[in-house]
Design a protein that fits this description.
This protein is of the alpha+beta class. The protein folds into 4 domains: about 5-35; about 50-140, 2-Layer Sandwich (Alpha-Beta Plaits); about 145-190 and about 280-305, no CATH class; about 190-275, Multidrug efflux transporter AcrB TolC docking domain, DN and DC subdomains (2-Layer Sandwich). Helix content is about 35%, strand content about 30%. The chain has 9 helices and 15 strands. A 4-stranded antiparallel β-sheet has the order 2-3-1-4, with helices on one face. Strands 5-15-6 form a 3-stranded antiparallel β-sheet, covered by helices on one side. About 15% of the residues are buried.
Length: about 300
């Protein structure tokens, strides 16, 4: 009987008295490796990513890429340890993301990016604000996502704004739990004060639009003005004004015409309404009649702290 190479090796292994010794040695090496090699349920893998955000006022997305994005890409690619570079552009802004090699130190990565940009800042067009550098890592990726949505047939008070407020309350409580990292809300609408100037009324009262913008931006501010002693204690004095609702904002004095004050409500519509949409989410589900129904939804994403 002619045996091939594998057959001869198999026969030699079966007949050799050393085979049991090799098996015992392999088992012992495996046990030793199991005992000595460190193991983690959640391995702490360092994959640092650095976001560089640059505001480009007045530039369209294509112009922002050519004038800001590409020079910034060239600068970032020259940094040691950078593996990939991604660029996102929109009107009036650019974001460049640098992903470093696995195992790189996040703080060191941010420092190298910042130093390289500062050393080559002359490549960025004049008039562009300084870039903002932010470090992200694997721990910033959410591990749990909770979605809030009303049940089918639930009362109509659960709209985008109500769900957003509920998600904010849940977020506050979840942040108190040990080892909880970053949390953020996707979808929904937060409540905001909206001012819509009326061009005709501005012309009648001879109020420039810039005066309205300046009055609103300067009014809603507070700052510490010192301390006072009272009843054996010390209290901080805060100066300024905080606008809480549409009525207070509408009563804001924009300017004075012939000695008579002109209020914001005289030249603009002031209302308390949901803010402009930044992101929206919905839930689609079938009802009892196999019809698809749509309901608003808000998602709360939760990440863990490093080492958790």
């Amino acid at each position: 009987m002619n045996l091939g190479l594998s057959g001869r090796i198999t026969r030699a292994t079966i007949q050799s008295p050393l085979t049991p010794l090799f098996l015992i040695a392999a088992i012992m090496v495996g046990l030793l490796a199991t005992i000595t090699i460190p193991r983690e349920e959640e391995p702490q893998i360092k994959v640092p990513m650095v976001d560089i955000r640059v505001m480009a006022p007045g530039l369209s997305a294509p112009d922002a890429v050519e004038l800001v994005g590409k020079p910034l890409e060239t600068i970032v690619k020259s940094v040691d340890g950078v593996e990939h570079v991604y660029t996102q552009a929109q009107d009036h802004g650019v974001m460049v993301t640098a992903r470093f090699l696995v195992g790189s130190d996040p703080e060191d990565a941010a420092t190298r990016i910042d130093e390289k940009i500062n050393a080559n800042i002359d490549r960025i067009p004049v008039g562009i604000p300084p870039p903002q550098v932010t470090v992200r890592g694997i721990n910033d990726v959410p591990i749990v996502v909770l979605t809030l949505t009303p049940k089918p047939g639930a009362p109509g008070q659960w709209d985008d704004q109500a769900l957003y407020e509920l998600a904010g309350k849940i977020r506050t409580e979840i942040a108190k739990v040990d080892d909880v990292g970053l949390t953020f809300i996707t979808g929904g609408q937060r409540e905001a004060l909206r001012v819509v100037p009326d061009p005709a009324k501005l012309a009648v009262y001879r109020v420039p639009l810039g005066s309205v913008i300046e009055a609103v931006s300067q009014a809603n501010r507070t700052f510490p003005a010192g301390t006072v002693r009272e009843s054996g204690g010390t209290a901080m004095v805060v100066a300024g004004r905080t606008l809480r609702n549409a009525q207070e904002l509408g009563a804001l004095t924009v300017r004075s015409v012939t000695g008579a004050p002109v209020y914001l409500r005289d030249v603009a519509t002031v209302e308390q309404a949901p803010s402009q949409d930044q992101s929206r989410s919905w839930r689609w589900a079938k009802d009892g009649k196999d019809n698809w129904t749509m309901a608003p939804a808000v998602s709360l994403a939760i990440a863990k702290r490093a080492g958790a």
